[in-house]
Amino acid sequence: MKRSILLTLCVVMGVLATSAQKTMSPPTIMIVPDDIYCKANGYTLSFNNQGSTEVRPDYEKALTEDQTLHAVLLQIGQLITDRNSSIEIVDILTAINNYKSDAAMNESNFGSEAESVDEAIIRNSQADILVKINFTLLKNGPQRQVQWTMSGIDAYTSMQFAPISGVGQPATATTPAILVREAVFGQMDAFLQKMLGYYQRMATNGRGISFNFKIADGSSLTMNSKAGEYTLQEVIDDFLYDNSVDGNGLEKVRGGSTFLNYQCVYVPLMAEVRGRMRKQNANQIARKLSTYLEADYGIQSEFKTIGLGKVNFYIK
To answer: Distance of CA 289 to CAs 50, 166, 224, 275, 303, Å?
Structure first.
């Protein structure tokens, strides 16, 4: 009897472990040059963000003109894969090509919003985390060494975590990519531990997404308009609560009669999509909300995702 009970417990524990593995997928990352590296080397482009000019990194220019850069990114990726082969790495060139083939990225709802090229590339990568690398080659006679920094960035919120830095050992007759690899080698385990810890907390506490709602010009609606028993604002608030982790982030909201801005709502990392547990992104939440508003209240809307972690909603 005891053996039978023990066997049953082992089977149950095995099923639970298998289920947890299926539910919790490894992080997807993309390794990119740091903004500082791009600006220092002139790999930038100007972006008009609603009348305000911003200088953004130009990843394609950096990889086209800097023969060393892609080799460095590949070496960092190899170091990560050597230590944890379950981490999925999206090559930045693949994300750039996906962005270039995405004809819809230039479209804007009502012509009032835009997405920068680097945001579009990150969106097409579908990465959970960005690993940003900055390095400078130092020369002293025939010897060379690298000064470097590396940090993890939440691809949705741009929050930085696990920054590390150092100066490599002087060497001769070796490539900059190998110098970077050897310099980073000793700190990679600690970096990955922090990165996976951050991802685990994201799986528990949710992934941050900002939602911006705007009543379109000419609409008869306001945020105070009745939608069933409640106002439109209350309906939106309740939907986001029901699709968040315990309503985390909903308190950081600004609003008026024609707009509603949620700074960062923490939604579950995993959700059931078409009967299967999958990673959940901002676009899926937005589509679900748009369908809900029209099906239950006859309210039409359009939305646009900016990068990975921002949704602009337009109520018609």
So the answer is: 26, 46, 18, 18, 10
